[in-house]
């Protein structure tokens, strides 16, 4: 190599080093910006902090066990509950006594052999949020990434198992109102999903599946997972920015409509394409950035379906809203295990009972999700006096997916989301696959064409 070539090589190397340093500095600055944007909700109240495993059983057995998860859901689901009761339950959505600093360090010592201050470059000891079985901290990794760190409450497994036993007692009471329903299998399915939430490495795999599928999506965002820092009781993911649900409700209706469409697309695109459902539609699991951009977090309760399940869903919706055929619909729901084969009611009676669940997609027209609609839907679902009630069953694939009726629709009602959900669904359904019908649909179509 001559002298001039050698000199150019050295200059190029120096330029590359400078560029690398600038890129690293920019990444760290961005991490600090995101870190600063996700501050705790007010000052952390440590007057009732959890300092031991015994405290977990005492405090979280009444606030964060299985029964609390139902109370948490009822606080945002539009139900006929008295508003005072719902307001009280709403405190369960994102508030729990924080773990003491020592207890958090104890979890880290057991999982990593080191305290968090030695694992992360920057560590905020005050949680930014409460999860159902843990709390979330913000941190910056040693390589300069802003992350969310979910730390599981020690001893929560035993607390959950105790509550699952209580759940079986509650479920048995449902048999009096719905005699055809196999409540034991329902509890078994719920127990399996909740037990899975205890394994943060499993949750990391769930989230990675969604993150890989939605990579590069124009308005659906799934935070990346730091598998190298994740353990069975510590989950580390990219720290996402955005407005929390309560703050986003102050945005104008156009923004809320776009967000509602995004959430709707995410649920049903995932169901039909990924064949799985992130079964915890909850206000704390969304962050909003405007223009329809929504970040989805918490993939602990993820239900996977087999192809036969998806085919059954397709048959049901096709019979209900495409064919609008009571005969075909009855055949589909008997096959799905939702109606006892010995039901003596007419096809028309059965069809009319299930009709409200398909109201948002029944017509090729705009539909607004409202509290009135979801409250009536909830009351209808649990109306033990309806003649169809004594023939109702809930097969295993439908236990978690009922969260669409109870959770997703209530989230959309809180947003007062309006859209032509029939035309949006027709884009997503495998048996129709209509062209894009909205601005977001056209953006999504471009993303799909590049995959």
Briefly note the structural class of the backbone: alpha+beta
Q: Termini, distance in Å? A: 44 Å
Total number of helical segments? 18
- Mean pLDDT across all amino acids: 84
Low-confidence stretches: 71-94
DSSP strand (E) fraction?
Answer: 5-15%
Described by strand count, sense and barrel closure, the largest sheet is: 5 strands, antiparallel
Helix content: 40-55%
- What is the H/E order? HHHHHHEEEEHHHEEHHEEEEHHHEHHEHH
Question: What global shape is seen?
Answer: globular
Number of strands: 12
Radius of gyration: 24 Å
In short:
The protein has helices at 3-37, 53-63, 66-76, 83-90, 101-112, 116-119, 156-177, 183-196, 200-213, 245-248, 253-274, 307-322, 326-336, 347-354, 371-381, 396-414, 421-428, 439-450, and strands at residues 120-123, 129-130, 134-141, 146-152, 220-221, 234-238, 276-278, 286-290, 293-296, 302-304, 367-368, 418-419. It is of the alpha+beta class and 451 residues long.
Task: Present the secondary structure layout.
Layout: H1 3-37, H2 53-63, H3 66-76, H4 83-90, H5 101-112, H6 116-119, E1 120-123, E2 129-130, E3 134-141, E4 146-152, H7 156-177, H8 183-196, H9 200-213, E5 220-221, E6 234-238, H10 245-248, H11 253-274, E7 276-278, E8 286-290, E9 293-296, E10 302-304, H12 307-322, H13 326-336, H14 347-354, E11 367-368, H15 371-381, H16 396-414, E12 418-419, H17 421-428, H18 439-450
Parallel strand pairs: 5-9
Antiparallel strand pairs: 1-3, 2-3, 3-4, 4-6, 7-10, 8-9, 11-12
Helix pairs in contact: 2-7, 3-4, 7-8, 11-16, 11-17, 12-13, 13-14, 15-16
């Amino acid at each position: 190599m001559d002298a001039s070539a050698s000199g150019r090589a050295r200059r190029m190397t120096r330029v590359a080093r400078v560029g690398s340093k600038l890129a690293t500095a920019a990444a760290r600055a961005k991490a600090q910006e995101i870190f600063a944007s996700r501050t705790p909700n007010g000052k952390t109240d440590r007057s009732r902090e959890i300092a031991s495993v015994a405290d977990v059983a005492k405090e979280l057995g009444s606030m964060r066990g299985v029964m609390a998860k139902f109370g948490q859901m009822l606080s945002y689901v539009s139900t006929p509950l008295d508003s005072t009761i719902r307001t009280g339950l709403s405190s369960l959505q994102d508030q729990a006594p924080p773990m003491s600093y020592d207890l958090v360090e104890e979890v880290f010592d057991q999982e990593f052999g080191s305290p968090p201050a030695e694992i992360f470059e920057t560590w905020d000891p005050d949680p930014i949020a409460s999860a159902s079985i843990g709390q979330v901290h913000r941190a910056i990794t040693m390589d300069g990434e802003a992350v969310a760190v979910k730390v599981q409450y020690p001893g929560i497994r035993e607390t959950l198992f105790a509550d699952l036993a209580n759940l079986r007692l509650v479920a048995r009471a449902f048999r009096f109102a719905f005699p055809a329903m196999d409540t034991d299998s329902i509890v078994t399915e719920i127990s399996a999903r909740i037990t899975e939430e205890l394994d943060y490495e499993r949750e990391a795999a769930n989230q990675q599946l969604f993150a890989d599928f939605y990579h590069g999506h124009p308005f659906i965002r799934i935070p990346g997972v730091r598998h190298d820092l994740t353990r069975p009781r510590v989950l580390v993911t990219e720290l996402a920015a955005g407005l929390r649900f309560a703050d986003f409700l102050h945005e104008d209706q156009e923004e809320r409509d776009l967000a509602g469409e995004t959430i709707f697309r995410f649920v049903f695109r995932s169901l039909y394409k990924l064949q799985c459902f992130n079964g915890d539609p909850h206000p704390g699991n969304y962050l909003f950035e405007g223009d329809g951009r929504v970040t989805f977090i918490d993939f602990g309760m993820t239900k996977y379906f087999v192809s036969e399940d998806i085919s059954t869903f397709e048959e049901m919706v096709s019979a209900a809203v495409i064919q609008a055929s009571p005969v075909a619909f009855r055949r589909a729901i008997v096959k799905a295990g939702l109606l006892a084969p010995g039901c003596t009611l007419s096809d028309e009676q059965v069809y009319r009972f299930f009709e409200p669940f398909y109201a948002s997609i029944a017509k090729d027209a705009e539909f607004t999700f409202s509290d009135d609609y979801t409250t009536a839907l909830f009351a209808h679902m649990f109306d033990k006096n309806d003649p169809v009630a004594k023939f109702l069953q809930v097969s295993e694939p439908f236990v978690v997916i009922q969260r669409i009726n109870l959770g997703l629709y209530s989230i959309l009602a809180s947003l007062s989301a309006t859209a032509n959900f029939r035309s949006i669904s027709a884009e997503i359904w495998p048996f129709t696959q209509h062209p894009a019908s909205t601005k977001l649909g056209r953006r999504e179509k471009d993303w799909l064409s590049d995959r």
